[in-house]
Amino acid sequence: MLAAMLPLTAAAQWQTALDLGMRHASVAEYNQRGRRVVAEHGWLPGLGAALDYRGEDVDLFTAASVFDADLDYDGQLQNGRSYRSQTRTTLAQARLGARYRLHGSTRLVGYAEIDHWRRDIEGGGNAVGLRERNWSPRLALGLEQRWQTGSGGRVEASLAIVRAGPERLKVGFSGLLDDASLRTHGATGLAADLLYQPWTAIPLSVGMRLESIKVPRSEEVTAYRHGEPRGTLAQPEHARHAATLFVRYLF
């Protein structure tokens, strides 16, 4: 939903946009033997907004989006028994970046991004709920290509390599253990955008964004209950994938 903005006319250098979209998000967690132990998936509705400034060779842009809903949770308890529930999930991103025209309609794109991931896993029976708050800084670098269509519209496509800094994770255990803080290792992923505006005279476009990243297992930290050590904790290796479909209105 944070795809590149459409080119402006010569008379306008500033442009804003509002996005309405649906994101299919999936999460998979793996144990140290590489076996998947948790899977989450589902659709999240969301909103996005963007502001773009066009120069002759250099463009500046900023954008933000938020998606929120329940994902289906399919995991297992510490005793190995399967456990199914719901995870209240919020995915939010904010970015600031620039584009530089290399040649013709090809541009180099770079941006800095903050990714926020909230998970509230619903407890039930003998399983307690978990609350997770996750922040990660990211840097991305890629290429963008633009085409004119026969109907007078435009198509834009971009592909970027995303380098994510260590995730900073805070976990709440519903009173079973004291709240804990963990930090993962950095990770590298991909992001791709496609945006289509059928007619230049009509300020509506449709788009898609794909994202994928796999984060290594964190180092172990000591778990406490009322200040007394109760073992160790670690954030498992996990993969996050997202496919977002959206409609954009240009102002």
Throw out a few tags for this protein.
251 residues; 14 strands; two-stranded antiparallel sheet; Lipocalin; disordered N terminus; single chain; 10-stranded antiparallel barrel; mainly beta; 0% helix
N/C terminus separation: 16 Å
Radius of gyration: 21 Å
- The CATH topology turns out to be Lipocalin
Structural class from helices and strands? Answer: mainly beta
Overall 3D form: elongated
Sheet of most strands: 10 strands, antiparallel, barrel
Q: Please report the total strand number as a whole number.
A: 14
Strand order of the main beta sheet, please? 1-2-3-4-5-6-7-10-11-14
**Poorly predicted regions:** 2-12
* Helix-strand pattern: EEEEEEEEEEEEEE
Q: Tell me which CATH architecture applies here.
A: Beta Barrel
State mean pLDDT (0 to 100 scale): 91
In helices, the fraction of residues equals: under 10%
Total domain count: 1
Q: Let me know the CATH homologous superfamily.
A: OPCA outer membrane adhesin/invasin
Q: Can you count the helices?
A: 0
Written overview of the protein:
The chain has one domain: Lipocalin. The chain has no helices and 14 strands. It has strands spanning 14-30, 36-54, 58-76, 82-103, 106-121, 130-148, 154-164, 168-172, 180-183, 187-197, 204-215, 221-225, 228-233, 237-250. Strands 1-2-3-4-5-6-7-10-11-14 form a ten-stranded antiparallel β-barrel. Strands 12-13 form a two-stranded antiparallel ribbon. 28% of the residues are buried.
